[in-house]
Each structure stands twice: as structure tokens, then as C-alpha cells.
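Thread: "does anyone have the structure for this chain?"

Original post by V.I.:
We have the sequence but no experimental structure in hand. Need at least a predicted one for the grant figures.
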Amino acid sequence: MNDRRLGLIAGNGRFPFLVLDAARNAGYHVTIIALKEEAFPDLEAAAAQAPVADLHRVSLGQLGTWI
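Reply from O.Q.:
Generated one for you, C-alpha cells below.
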């Protein structure tokens, strides 16, 4: 099992996709906390590509409970 892990808080724009790709290429297992009101819907499809990243959609008000 890969012990290298990275948590990504994803808002809008292309930046979350770039970080996801770079982290995967560096060998990290990525967990994404995507803001419901901000993150692009196609982030779920990107997370589902191998190696699969865990993705959780949360409202901005719930973000503190995840951190």
C-alpha cells in the first residue's frame, strides 16, 4: 500500500486538476474534498481515473469538520 498521501481542497478552476495529476505522477494517493458550490462537476470523472482518488463533496460550511 502507498503511504504517500495528499489531501486536496478543491474549489473552482483548473488548479485542482493540475494538482491531482501532479500528485498522482509523484506517487501520492489523493483524497479530494470538493466544495459543492465551487468545484467543477467533471472533477469526479478525473478522480475516478486510475489510480482512483477518494472524492467527497461538501458545502463550504462543512469544510471545518473535514479539516
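V.I.: this helps a lot. The mean pLDDT is 91.
O.Q.: and Helices lie at 15-25, 43-48, 63-66.
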